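Structure (tokenized):
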């Protein structure tokens, strides 16, 4: 496929995305680059994708910098979030399992910010949810 066609497709895709999502100039440029690279890999313009050899995955942000206390950053696009699950599904059509596999993230590494996880844990403890769950299971005979 001709690169001009890829540029046109990229323009259409990013324009459609930008028309329903507020994007900064940086976000728009990142989106253009990411979409073009993805289309390029899908059609095999560089030869590797068509030959059945998976293209090397280059994360937008290094693994050691992706998981912070306040935010967890998407290694696909580099954007920061409190939790990644919904973003991965909506923006990148990836399940957490596929995302972990793609970027070699250990299964035990949570895809949520550390502070968010701790806050949720404290709320659950305060409400006694663990005891209520155990009591409910006991009641049902499990």
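Design, position by position:
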């Amino acid at each position: 496929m001709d690169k001009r066609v890829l540029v046109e497709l990229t323009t259409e895709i990013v324009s459609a995305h930008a028309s329903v999502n507020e994007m900064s100039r940086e976000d728009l440029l990142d989106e253009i680059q990411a979409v073009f690279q993805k289309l390029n890999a899908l059609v095999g313009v560089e030869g590797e994708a068509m030959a059945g050899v998976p293209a090397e995955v280059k994360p937008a942000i290094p693994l050691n910098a992706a998981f912070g206390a306040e935010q967890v950053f998407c290694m696909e696009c580099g954007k920061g979030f409190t939790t990644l699950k919904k973003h991965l599904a909506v923006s990148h059509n990836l399940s957490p399992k596929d995302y972990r596999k793609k970027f070699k993230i250990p299964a035990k590494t949570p895809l949520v910010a550390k502070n968010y996880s701790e806050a949720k844990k404290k709320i659950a403890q305060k409400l006694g949810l663990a005891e209520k769950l155990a009591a409910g299971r006991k009641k049902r005979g499990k």
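Reviewer-requested clarification: The first strand starts at residue 72 and ends at 73. The chain has a mean pLDDT of 84.
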